[in-house]
Design brief:
This protein is of the alpha+beta class. The protein has one domain. It is 29% helix and 33% strand. The protein has two helices and eleven strands. A hairpin with a 5-residue loop joins strand 2 and strand 3. The longest helix has 57 residues. The protein is elongated. The model has no long low-confidence stretch (mean pLDDT 78).
Length: 246
């Protein structure tokens, strides 16, 4: 074989073994497509996450008022209906324009010296949230007296938290009102020694609006109300109405 033929064979061999690469245009096109796919995936993920967060917030907003009203009802049922040595006090006022209320359930006993002692005292009240930037109220609950065991909070409270009487239950409250049912009339204040027939508790976490007098209110559709009876053994008069065709 001649020298020229040998050189041509080596050149062909080296050419066939050389690796083939991507051009700059192909790399740019691949990066562009990958970026478009990534943006689309992130957009879908963001929309799904926003929808899930909105549903969670909606569930929390609808569940929290019911849980608070249930806790208040349990305290009233347990202490308020315990006997003649129980007193209930209700107060309502405005704080920074927000409707707030205070419910006190006091149960007393007489010791060996025939002196009245506080056996158990529970207070539910709302106060303006000065530590948060958002305007609203914080709902508190306190428990004191000789019966120091609190089935609601003792198991959930931290050791340092047990030193405080007022324990925050939840924040973001925009409407908190407690009324006493006396016949067909709802009273905003009750300080009588006798127990009322029922207590009406209203709470809301909805966005408030300012009224003409300068206070805040929420739409009636956003208010959660529960009527709690104190004396379930009282006699209820039933009136039977005859039908017109009879």
């Amino acid at each position: 074989m001649t020298q020229l033929g040998l050189n041509n064979t080596k050149r062909a061999f080296y050419t066939s073994r050389s690796p083939s690469g991507f051009s700059l245009a192909e790399m740019l096109a691949a990066l562009t497509i990958a970026a478009m796919v990534l943006v689309a995936v992130l957009g879908i993920y963001s929309r799904v996450e926003s929808s899930a967060a909105a549903i969670t917030r909606k569930l929390d907003v609808s569940r929290l008022p019911s849980e608070v009203l249930q806790r208040i009802a349990e305290d009233i049922d347990r202490i308020g209906s315990s006997g003649s040595d129980t007193k209930v006090t209700v107060e309502n006022k405005f704080e920074k324009g927000f409707p707030t209320a205070r419910l006190t359930i006091l149960r007393t006993i007489y010791d060996s010296a025939n002196k009245k002692q506080t056996f158990e005292k529970i207070v539910w009240q709302a106060g303006y949230d000065y530590e948060s930037d958002a305007n609203g109220l914080v709902l508190y609950r306190s428990h004191s007296g000789m019966g120091l065991e609190d089935k609601l909070l003792d198991e959930q409270r931290e050791s340092w938290e047990k030193e405080y009487l007022l324990v925050p239950i939840c924040d973001g409250v925009t409407f908190f009102k407690i009324q006493v049912a006396k016949g067909q009339v709802l009273q905003d204040k009750w300080a009588s020694d006798s127990l009322p027939n029922g207590i009406v508790v209203t709470i809301s976490f909805a966005r408030p609006f300012e009224t003409l007098p300068g206070t805040f209110d929420v739409p009636d559709a956003e208010k959660n109300t529960r009527t709690i009876a104190l004396s379930r053994t009282r006699k209820i008069k039933f009136i039977l109405i005859k039908k017109e065709d009879e």
